């Protein structure tokens, strides 16, 4: 006689006590719980993670949860550099990897990587922006980024960007104008400011909304974002459309701009690499559709 076949795990019954874990220099560790609502015991494994900028250690990183039980897990970050990073965390439950929560690392204080609500907002033309974006916008205009070939695509000098970002963080968003910095540093700092937000702005939409096709359908979904997200994105997309008007000189079409900017506005939460790649591509198309709407609606620019 064969043995009794075990019942498949319903992964919806394995949960975490939180969907977001925040770690900072001041608070480098915390505790969360894995909750097993299954009638069977389960095994879990969480991979520790190390880069040149930080290391993350879980304790215990693996174990067994009894039926209808929970286990506390401590997570500790050690910062090696001043960085702000958002990471999707995968936990292996039995034989399946699932993304359960977002780990937000904040290795520096200042105007990057913080909730925009906590920043000073100032008038910039028809828009009201957080001070760091307003300052970067002023420098973008001053350096005539609209005519610069490869703007938003070409990388800035890493060391110079680090210096500029550090200055802005320690001077409440102000930026000391120096001869050596170029439009590429300014444009990349704009992208970096959006990328380091605690929650990327287009992650305010569901994956179904991001996968909408067509300009009109995407616009309807875009309009469901919070007013603060819309305020920030309206300015950014208007700026990008203005850049595209000079595509014959700067080589940056709406499609090119969507490709380089979308990764700073949306990140997939899927643990499946193929699904993550597909969602990244869908996000690019979504951004391109929204840019097209802005380009076709003069009142938005």
Automatic annotation (TrEMBL):
PROSITE patterns on file: RHOGAP
One Pfam family named in its UniProt record: RhoGAP
GO biological process: signal transduction
InterPro entries referenced in this protein's UniProt entry, alphabetically: Ig-like_fold, Rho_GTPase_activation_prot, RhoGAP_dom, RopGAP1-5
Organism (species): Entamoeba dispar (strain ATCC PRA-260 / SAW760)
Keyword Membrane in annotation: no
Name of the featured protein: GTPase activating protein, putative
Keyword entries, A-Z: GTPase activation
Any GO MF annotation of the entry: GTPase activator activity
Residue stretches spanning the membrane: none
Domain Rho-GAP, residue spans: 117-298
Domain of life the protein comes from: Eukaryota
